């Protein structure tokens, strides 16, 4: 069964005008890169239909609704989180030399690395400014929360880079890295609405804890898709994470277990020459034999359970809680 | 005569602890890059004496003093402006492939491009957070002013990149680009102290106008040093800007004047092969013959005069005004 994300359409339709207005404030060079990256235009600047999941804006809107606020009051927060997400994708693709993003050429391949770096910087700055211009104490607090999430995201990416030079990364280190690189911004998305509309601090904390666990489930699912995902739904080459020898969670789990398959996987990944197609399929099989796939699948479920428990502790309208749960399940079990 | 910058020592001593504390909040990988970039450590992490001019913190502290505030109240603003400046240098060196910064290997050559990009992002985020954590309306307004300056800086850099593919850049376009890329952050430094301590809006506006003109004088002087500066004082190779065929202000002025020397310069710079040492010296001579050097020197003086007039309109203690003027003269006429 393919899980879908029903409320995303609605959130995207509400948030997109805010994003478009914000991008419209940028200089023409930078705005052009941003519009392409968001999927609003093609590489010649012509309009096209967008394809983003609008996951983080959806969570931010739900967050405000959890505190009883109108959707309209949370839209700047929803847009700001999406801008920070867009910033991180633009920069990550440059740093990882990744030529594909959302089934299209990554922005840096179209406009150059410098233009992509500058556009990322602009979106990050715009995100904070969108919050500050609301002029309320709640929105100032939201800006601080977003800054902290951004610093976490940067720390996680720095740690991920450092992992590339090490062959002794533990599961715990890898989970800690994912908590910063992926889960921190999702936790911020889940709580920023409450903060922005000056809702209860306890509710913001519970939703942040929910978002952290759901974010880890999301990363585990992402890492599973990076090895076993189908190209036609992920938009990435088959076995893409193995090609780049990424130390993703299933790989690290396989390498750190005391199995013969794990040892053979370590030898395979340590080879200096590029991995052939048969090598990649061998690697995927060894990860599975060493228990890396089963561990990641089980860990995603455990994280989903933990997320669910955090949500149970928090007081919010039933339909908002249901939507949060639906999304968390999507994040943990999606196939794209 | 070599002009010096006397109040910088004092401002640096006051601001550096604030900067060090802020950098101490970053993850260890990113903090290491930041400490190296600020000149506090060498490439192995050992302490060394710093060499920065602390120009922007000095201006920010003077700005607060212009509004009658204690120096201590302006220090977060002074540190924030320096963090944004550090962010822009880290990223510019990556984008321009520039291997030298302040007589030392640029951070990206030591830690890699990705680490330098991430460190820049972290310093930008930290800058805004340093302002917001002060928790006053003045400091929230200061954060917005800094965000606007950052967006200007990005727009200027994007425009500068676009100039590389054009051979019809006008003086006016080039000045407009410099106004964004260089002068906007200096204007912010000159006014952010007033904003942060909630001084008169008119004073902030006058000091921003002063900073814009002084910033243009600074850029003109910088462009002159990039061609005729002495390596032992600038720390850059002789004729460095000509080597990279940078469309700096004296070059554009030479190219856009209807002179025979200007036409010969255009032909020389249009050659596909790398420029030889004799070519570079020819180019410098042609710029001078075409009037590019004289125009830039005169324009720097005109900008300094305009800056001085803006300062005359504003009410502030006499010693603060004298310091601002001294710095503006240094910016326009320095030899390093």
UniProtKB/TrEMBL annotation, chains A, B:
CDD domains: Trans_IPPS_HT (cd00685). It comes from the Bacteria. Gene3D superfamilies: Farnesyl Diphosphate Synthase. PROSITE patterns: POLYPRENYL_SYNTHASE_1. It holds the Pfam family polyprenyl_synt. Belongs to the FPP/GGPP synthase family. This is Polyprenyl synthetase family protein. It comes from Nonomuraea helvata. The lineage of its organism: Bacteria, Bacillati, Actinomycetota, Actinomycetes, Streptosporangiales.
């Amino acid at each position: 069964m393919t899980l879908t994300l029903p409320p995303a359409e609605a959130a995207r339709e509400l948030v997109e005008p805010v994003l478009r207005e914000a991008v419209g404030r940028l200089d023409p060079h930078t705005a052009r890169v941003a519009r392409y990256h968001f999927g609003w235009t093609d590489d010649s600047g012509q309009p096209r239909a967008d394809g983003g999941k609008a996951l983080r804006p959806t969570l931010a809107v739900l967050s405000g609704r959890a505190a009883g606020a109108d959707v309209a009051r949370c839209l700047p927060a929803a847009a700001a989180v999406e801008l920070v997400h867009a910033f991180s994708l633009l920069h990550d693709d440059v740093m990882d030399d990744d030529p594909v993003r959302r089934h299209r050429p990554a922005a840096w391949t179209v406009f150059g690395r410098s233009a992509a770096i500058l556009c990322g910087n602009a979106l990050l700055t715009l995100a904070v400014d969108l919050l500050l211009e609301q002029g309320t104490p709640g929105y100032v607090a939201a800006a601080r929360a977003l800054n902290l999430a951004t610093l976490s995201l940067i720390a996680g990416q720095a740690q991920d880079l450092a992992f590339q030079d090490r062959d002794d990364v533990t599961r715990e280190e890898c989970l800690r890295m994912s908590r910063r690189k992926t889960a921190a911004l999702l936790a911020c998305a889940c709580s920023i609405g409450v903060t922005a509309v000056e809702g209860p601090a306890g509710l913001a904390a519970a939703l942040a804890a929910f978002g952290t666990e759901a974010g880890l489930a999301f990363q585990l699912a992402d890492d599973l898709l990076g090895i076993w995902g189908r190209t036609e739904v992920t938009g990435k080459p088959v076995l893409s994470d193995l090609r780049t020898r990424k130390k993703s969670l299933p790989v690290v789990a396989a390498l750190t277990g005391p199995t013969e398959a794990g040892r053979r996987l370590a030898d395979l990944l340590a080879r200096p020459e590029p991995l052939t197609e048969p090598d990649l399929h061998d690697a995927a099989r060894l990860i599975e034999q060493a228990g890396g796939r089963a561990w990641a699948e089980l860990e995603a479920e455990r994280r989903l359970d933990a997320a669910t428990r955090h949500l149970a502790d928090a007081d919010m309208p039933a339909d908002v809680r249901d939507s949060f749960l639906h999304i968390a399940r999507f994040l943990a079990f999606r196939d794209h």
